[in-house]
Amino acid sequence: MIFATDLDRTLIFSKRALSEFHQSEEDLIEVERTKLHRSYMSKLSYQLIKELNTKITIIPITTRTFDQYNRLAVPFFNKRESHYVTSNGAVVIKNGKRDTEWDQILLEKMSQFPYPFSSVNQLLLTYENQNVIDVQRLEHLYFCLTFKKANDIDLIVTILAEIEAMGWEHYTHRNKIYVIPPFLQKGNAIKYIKQKTRETISWAAGDSRMDYSFLSLSERSFVPRHGELALHMDESSRWIKTKTSGLKAAEEILLTIYKEVFLGSSLAEAINLQVRNKEVLNANINTKVKTKVSIVGKKGDNSRQKKSE
């Protein structure tokens, strides 16, 4: 059984994200520390993942680059004995080594694409030379853009329209825009891993549009209430929006999976059903009590009325 999960703003949260959710750094576990970046998990989330990792296959799938991923100090994301995916699906790591077969698949797809990396690179170079954008070139497969004048909407619209005309896609993440060929998706990477391992993707979790491709492959997908995907999704038995946001949403997701893994899905559902039935029973009892009180009150009123007559 596979649990495929995004990381940032799904299970781990930066210092900036914590301030959004009015969460202090106290009682949290720091999982990343550099001069510029710090990220955290709640103690409960950390412990739950540690326990789940003994029973199921956890596959992190992140937009972080390989180097950014390896800044994370989360030892039970077993980096030497399992898979993980970085760079939005551009890099698949297996048993601590880069999967060169996957590299070859992507290079072949790029070579067959009508407007390959070099074509889009040429377009972006034009604007880069005009000193209006900064361009990160990643894995010779995709780009990350930062506009120097973020309020120049006309320029942004013009550049993105040219990118779309080449058949490439773009995703906005805060002040950055990722420019990605349509075949470079997290979902394609996890589909490749699934074919190799022959395991079922039982659960998945992610917060952004860039996560949709792999969430759609899972038997059950969790979307944090604070994520952009939550604004556009319809809830069902397969697509579950958390009741909470931020660190609590991560705990809610992991607790749900923990119950199903360690208690069994049927037992977990039975417990949930028992709780729901108890709530209904209490509601019915309260209703009956109120009704009896109302009837008694009416009888009392009637008897008093007869005596007065």
Automatic annotation (TrEMBL):
It holds the Pfam family S6PP. Transmembrane segments: none annotated. The keyword Hydrolase applies. This is Hydroxymethylpyrimidine pyrophosphatase-like HAD family hydrolase. GO terms for molecular function: hydrolase activity. Residues 2-223 form the Sucrose phosphatase-like domain. Keywords: Hydrolase. It comes from the Bacteria.
